[in-house]
Design brief:
The protein is an alpha/beta fold. The chain is built from 17 helices and 20 strands.
Length: 480
């Protein structure tokens, strides 16, 4: 962002106020907080809420938690807050607060390369696989993803796909202090839309694909797509999936950064990166081909030799709950995956082409885009000879309503059995499976709970299936 003199003066005033009225820290960002719930004693609270009454409530909450001062854009009197702590009123605060986070990086000589990855499907898998590939080559890689945060592979639990902006900057500072070569951030459409990554300058941004998703939040497919594409304007180089029709139609003239594409097909297009390595990607069926192509593209642009790229790809470890294959001696093969859109379902069916009978166990989330349910069901119906419809985070919505929407997309409902309990559904699938059956358990991957009626129900598809298999080997099938 380019500041005019007035905005620069406002920023300098804020920095001086924070330094003079907060507890000491060598990092400016440790001296203030933008969320009253995360305020620490003797920190400055920056209140960004535009609604006046909510703004004042947040300030009072921060004062109660030990704030030593606050900055706001809302005009107020000391009598309103009933406190003698110092405060500063700065108009259009939302234009400059990001610069307060960026101030800590001015003197850092060696910043890591930052890679942002977004997309409807495959962004988490691509984050983790790319981190793994770079780590194999001896690089230190910081990761911010829905699977965890930390220096790969030592990740700790994360409650967000893309954390709030203040946390993102603190993670980046930690990764910089620990001299990471790369930082890879999973970027959700909501996170991009809400400005959780504002001010970040990505060396690379990757968009894996765009399918219909989160319309309940974005209100239209156009808004959803624009939220994803926002990352391009924050990037030096962007890599898009040319095989995704919503991406190959992007008007490159609208962006000033370098834009490249990856594709699983051959194109005479100078913007499509040649990812040919003399290596058969099909050997790695437990990885999405487009994740592998993205990894190859990034490593090529980073000047890794073909030999090193192949070495990384050959040594990738499959990810839990992502195309995870479990083979049995006489109860068929199981593929467990997080797939939750029609596009993701279609890809995973096509990538595991088989002559075996296919049974699919799946459900759809409640309180979310209803149109997705029939669309997903049509794909399941096309590829499956047997369907087990079950729960998948119904949240506060009635399961029967979700079931009805799904069944609207299935022509032959005679091949459908409805078992609401996901545990009972998996047990039924296992009990009735045969040696020549391919079973897909989709939607939950390695998640550890189901959300239902505001309750968190402990459950993990992988663990439950493995326990069933263990019991079966001991000649019993029982609840685990």
């Amino acid at each position: 962002m380019t500041f005019n003199m007035q905005e620069q003066n406002k920023l300098n005033t804020c920095i001086k106020f924070i330094i003079n009225n907060s507890d000491y820290s060598d990092c400016l960002m440790n001296r203030f907080a933008i969320d009253s719930r995360r305020i620490s004693n003797k920190q400055i609270f920056i209140s960004l809420e535009k609604n006046s009454s909510k703004n004042i409530n947040n300030i009072k909450h921060a004062i109660a938690k030990g704030a030593s001062g606050f900055i706001t854009s809302v005009s107020l009197t000391r009598g309103i807050i009933s406190s003698s702590i110092p405060f500063l009123v700065i108009k259009e605060l939302e234009k400059i607060y990001v610069e307060l986070f960026k101030n800590d990086f001015i003197k850092i000589k060696c910043e890591p390369s930052i890679i942002g990855i977004t997309g409807t499907n495959g962004k988490t898998s691509t984050v983790l696989s790319l981190a793994q590939a770079l780590t194999i080559q001896g690089k230190k890689v910081g990761v911010v993803s829905s699977e965890g945060i930390g220096i790969y592979p030592d990740l700790v639990h994360n409650d967000y796909t893309t954390p709030p902006i203040d946390l993102n900057y603190k993670y980046l500072r930690k990764f910089s202090d620990r001299k990471c070569h790369y930082v890879i951030i999973e970027c959700s459409s909501q996170g991009l839309h809400q400005g959780r990554l504002n001010g970040f300058s990505f060396n690379y941004s990757l968009i894996t694909n765009i399918d219909q998703d989160h319309i309940d939040y974005h209100r239209s497919l156009k808004n959803y797509i624009n939220s994803k594409l926002k990352i391009i304007n924050q990037s030096q180089t962007s890599i898009l999936n040319y095989d995704c029709t919503k991406l190959n139609k992007v008007n490159l003239k609208n962006y000033s950064c370098n834009i490249f594409f990856i594709s699983n097909k051959m194109y005479k297009n100078s913007n499509v990166i040649n990812t040919s390595l003399g290596y058969d990607y099909n050997r790695l069926e437990q990885f999405n081909i487009y994740s592998l192509l993205m990894i190859t593209a990034v490593m090529k642009l980073e000047n890794f030799s073909n030999l090193k790229i192949i070495n990384s790809l050959k040594n990738l470890t499959p990810l839990l709950g992502r195309r995870q294959v479990i083979n049995t001696s006489d109860k068929g093969t199981y593929i467990i995956d997080y797939a939750h859109t029609s596009g993701a379902y279609k890809i995973i069916y096509q990538d595991f082409v088989t002559q075996k009978k296919i049974c699919t166990l799946f459900g759809c989330g409640g309180d979310r885009d209803r149109a997705k349910r029939a669309q997903t069901a049509r794909i399941v119906d096309k590829y499956s000879s047997k369907i087990i419809l079950t729960s998948d985070n119904s949240r506060t919505e009635n399961f029967e309503n979700i079931q009805k929407d799904i069944l609207d997309g299935i022509k032959n409902t005679n091949k459908v059995i409805v078992i609401r309990s996901r545990k009972e559904a998996i047990k039924y699938m296992f009990k009735h499976s045969s040696k020549n059956q391919l079973n897909f358990i989709l939607g939950k991957g390695n998640e550890n709970h189901i959300l239902e009626n505001d309750k968190i129900i402990p459950h993990n598809d992988i663990i439950y299936l493995m326990n069933l298999l263990k019991n079966y080997e001991h000649k019993t099938i029982q609840d685990c």
